[in-house]
Write a structure and sequence with these properties.
Elements (H helix, E strand, L loop, with lengths): L1 E2 L6 H6 L3 E5 L5 E5 L18 H4 L2 H17 L3 E9 L2 E11 L5 E7 L1 H23 L3 E6 L6 E4 L3 H5 L3 H5 L14 H14 L3 E8 L5 E12 L5 E10 L1 H54 L4 H39 L3 E3 L1 H11 L9 E6 L5 E3 L1 H20 L7 E8 L3 E8 L6 H6 L17 H11 L3 E7 L3 E9 L5
Parallel strand pairs: 1-3, 13-15
Antiparallel strand pairs: 2-3, 2-6, 4-5, 5-6, 7-8, 7-11, 9-10, 10-11, 12-14, 15-16, 16-18, 17-18
Helix pairs in contact: 8-9, 8-13, 9-11, 9-13, 10-11, 11-13
Length: about 500
């Protein structure tokens, strides 16, 4: 029992960074080859004549026995690994077992501690990086500088933003460029190209489209990554979804516009109303005087005929001024509602009161069906809500009167989910064609005869609803009827 005999392969053995042990079929160490730095648990010569179970700890021995069983069953080399505690620290070893023709086998043992530590550190760093990236409220990426911006790496948050898993992008099945809004692609490509050429970072806002077709407003901050020869190879960056911030800014902008328009409407209404009152008063006086003159010259037909023509002209003027007065009333209402203070509102109670207090000028009495479910409170203006309901009821009554001589049907419903409270006003009037529906919210657009409508009803409703952070939609079918759907965010107490 000694070292493996010296042969012409001594130089080769000395170059192998492994401890090589020869073991007989019973598991006893019979020979070894070891360089000056090799030491495994104890000195290599201490293995000689010893059974591996007597030298090695129980766990290492168990793994060697399992490896020997696999080697004998297959007749092929097999590999095992095991930890050993040496001088107060845990070290990790790989062992390769090779059968020999003599019935013995070789055990090639290599200390893998440093490699294992490096691998463990690498895995820990990667895990920390992934945890950091996952906690960033955005999509972290590295992509090639090509026409598609194909991804080298992209964080899992991309699925939250776009609805596609990160694997789709990293496998090349999908590319970032296809998720950009078509109207933003050219601008984005141009600005990124300019940043790469100027060797600077870029900060962009644009739109992306998710798997369901929804548009997201995003902000991206990135920089080119340069390799040798000062050539940019990649772009590293992060994309944040700022859709809620964009919507908040839009609502603030709408509120400012509503306040400005409300002030303007109040001023215009006031300035027009004074001279209009004078015109109406004098028209009434002229009409009375013209009637008296006509009676006085009843015996002179040519004069009477001329006076009748004058009377007709005065009637048209009165009709025009009445329409101006209705527009002024709408402007005043809009101004009052736009400038009224918002508060938390029980919409169910307010809708019931508004319907009961609505004073229709229509001679019809349609069947009104109320389906007012219990809903959360909203943050809105009571004056604005009541005005919106009255305007919608007036429109519904007018629509029903054009098609139903014996009344008609009008439904008002109130429902909610976790985020929205929805109010719907439905009539079974004639409905609208696509062109009329497209223009329904335009100011002064009306399908009524000249002098019968100002065309401000839905325009005022839209302005008031959007000013209260709500949304208004029109669902209409020609020959069936129309539903106006209004949704408000629920009020959450701080």
């Amino acid at each position: 029992m000694s070292e493996i005999p010296s042969t012409t392969t001594d130089g080769l053995l000395e170059s192998i960074p492994d401890l090589i042990l020869e073991v007989d079929p019973q598991g006893t160490f019979v020979a070894f080859h070891s360089g000056p730095e090799h030491e495994l648990y104890c000195k290599p010569e201490d293995f000689l004549g010893q059974h591996f179970a007597a030298v090695l700890p129980e766990e290492a021995s168990r793994r060697i026995r399992e490896g020997l069983k696999r080697m004998k069953a297959s007749g092929q080399a097999t590999e095992i690994s095991y930890p050993l505690e040496m001088e107060g620290e845990i070290r990790y070893f790989d062992c390769r077992l090779l059968p020999l023709k003599t019935g013995n086998f070789l055990a090639l043992i290599r200390d893998m501690t440093e490699s294992w530590r490096s691998q463990t550190e690498l895995e820990q760093n990667e895990a920390q990086f992934r945890a950091l990236v996952t906690n960033i409220p955005g999509v972290v990426y590295r992509c090639h500088i090509d026409s598609d911006w194909s991804a080298v790496y992209i964080s899992e948050n991309v699925e939250k933003l776009l609805g596609y898993p990160a694997e789709d992008f990293m496998s090349g099945e999908r590319v970032l460029a296809t998720c950009l809004h078509p109207e933003d692609r050219a601008r984005l490509a141009r600005e990124v190209d300019e940043a790469v050429k100027a060797k600077r970072h870029f900060d962009l806002t644009y739109r992306m489209i998710d798997s369901d077709g929804n548009i997201h407003h995003v902000q991206e901050r990135g920089r080119p990554v340069y390799a040798k020869l000062d050539e940019a190879h990649y772009i590293d960056g992060v994309i944040f979804d700022v859709t809620e911030i964009h919507q908040m800014r839009q609502r603030v902008l709408i509120n400012h516009k509503m306040a400005a328009v409300g002030s303007l409407a109040a001023g215009v209404a006031h300035e027009i109303n004074n001279p209009l009152a004078i015109i109406l008063a004098n028209l009434e006086y002229v009409s009375e005087e013209l009637s008296a003159i006509t009676n006085a010259v009843a015996a002179d037909p040519p004069v009477v005929e001329a006076l009748v023509d004058v009377g007709t002209a005065i009637t048209k003027v009165q009709s025009g001024t009445d329409r101006v007065r209705r527009i002024i009333d709408d402007l005043r209402t809009f101004s009052d509602a736009a400038e009224s203070r918002a508060d938390q509102i029980d919409l169910r109670r307010l809708v019931s009161w508004a319907v009961q207090s609505f004073d229709s000028t229509s001679s019809l009495s349609p069947e009104v069906t109320l389906k007012l479910g219990a809903v959360p409170e909203i943050w809105a203006s009571e004056v604005g809500i009541v005005q919106v309901i009255w305007n919608l009821l007036a429109n519904a009554f007018d629509a029903i009167s054009t098609q139903n001589d014996n009344g008609g049907e009008l439904g008002i419903s109130l429902s909610s989910d976790e985020e929205l409270v929805v109010l719907e006003v439905t009539d079974n009037g004639p409905g609208m064609n696509a062109e009329v529906a497209r223009r329904a919210f335009e100011p002064f657009f009306t399908t009524k005869a000249v002098g019968e409508g100002a065309g401000l009803g839905l325009f005022v409703c839209q302005g008031l609803v959007e000013g209260m952070d709500g949304e208004i939609d029109l669902l209409t079918t020609p020959g069936v009827g129309t539903t106006v759907r209004i949704s408000f965010p629920t009020f959450h107490r701080p």
